[in-house]
Amino acid sequence: MEFNHLTFQELDSTNEEAIRLYQKGELSTPTVIHSHYQSNGKGYGDNYWESAGGKNLTFSIACFPRMIEPSDQFILTQIISLSLWAVVSEVIPAKKIAIKWPNDLYVGNKKVAGVLIQNFIKGNSIDFSVIGVGLNVNQKVFLSDAPNPTSLIIETGKIFDTEVLLKKILQHFATYKNNLAALSLSETIHTRYLENLYRFGVFHRYKDKEGIFTAEITGINSFGQLKLITKKGEKRVYGFKEVEFL
User: Fold this and answer.
1) For 166, which DSSP code?
2) CATH no. for residue 218?
3) Are 246 and 204 within 8 A, CB to CB?
4) Per the structure, how many domains does the chain have?
5) What DSSP string describes 45-92?
6) pLDDT bucket at 51, cuts 50 / 70 / 90
7) Are residues 133 and 190 in the same domain?
8) Within this chain, do residues 102 and 217 fall inside the same structural domain, yes or no?
């Protein structure tokens, strides 16, 4: 996969810029939109992604995954999550790097990266997808009320070249994406995702609309929903934002 690159000093949001270009018919090939500063970086819902100008990596991958059916769209979440995991694991080898469902990247119990994916469906396929990524790189101080941010420089004491990190992430993403037609690849991706999933296979406390409970993550279904089993043996399935990690 070859990417066109659009680089900006400042944008409100790289995802919003990708959507604007798509809606105006100005995107026809895979494109990376990279901004050194986002004035209104997006997270899920009303969440805001804090990022100091020039310190971090904020970008969106705009692509046309039309071979993927809407029911299988979670494969994109797994691909970008594993791409981030691979690159961060290169620079923090002594730390425990894990993917917190569905697509945050954690160092121990602290968040180093987040992803926002927005898909546009036409008929039986995904016509357009924008995959927004925020990776905390060289920022040492965080001022928002986010509970647990960290960055590569906090964890390693080293300054990183964001352009080099971006190139590596895109290489991993393209490798997965280019080989999606392989019959075994989706299963391999899913297996790797589970192997690196935060809290997979161990009991922890969670909270849903009924209250607090203790459960073990047993897997992710094809729709990207989280599967848990309580200590009493009760199986539960949750969509995003339906359960809270405690």
Assistant:
1) H
2) 2.30.30
3) yes
4) 2
5) TT-B----TTTSEEEEEEE--TTS-GGGTHHHHHHHHHHHHHHHHHH-
6) low
7) yes
8) no
Task: Tell me 42's DSSP state.
Answer: B
Shared-domain flag, residues 145 and 221? no
Query: The domain containing residue 8 runs over which residues?
Result: 4-195
Cα-flanking dihedrals φ and ψ of residue 208, to 5°? -125, -170
Determine the distance from the C-alpha atom of residue 68 to the mean position of all C-alpha atoms in its chain, rounded to a whole number: 18
Q: What is the rounded distance in angstroms from the CA atom of residue 140 to the CA atom of residue 196?
A: 26
Distance CA 113, CA 134 (A): 5
* This prediction's pTM: 0.92
User: How buried is residue 161: exposed, middle or buried, by Cβ count under 10 Å (0-12/13-18/19+)?
Assistant: exposed
Q: Are residues 144 and 164 in the same domain?
A: yes
Instruction: Give the pLDDT confidence of 6-20 residue by residue, as tens digits.
Output: 999 999 899 999 999
Residue 43 predicted with pLDDT over 70: no
CA distances from 39 to 33, 48, 54, 172, 220 (A): 15, 10, 12, 28, 34
Mapped onto helix, strand or coil, the DSSP state of residue 159 is coil
State residue 104 phi and psi, 5-degree precision.
Answer: -85, 155
Distance CA 197, CA 217 (A): 9
User: What distance, in Å, lies between the first and last C-alpha atoms of the chain?
Assistant: 39
Phi-psi bin for 211: left (phi > 0), alpha (psi -120 to 50), beta?
left
**pLDDT value at residue 111:** 95
Q: What is the pLDDT of residue 108?
A: 94
Q: Are residue 46 and residue 64 in the same domain, yes or no?
A: yes
In terms of domains, do 57 and 114 share one? yes
Q: Given pLDDT bands bounded at 50, 70 and 90, which one contains residue 222? A: confident
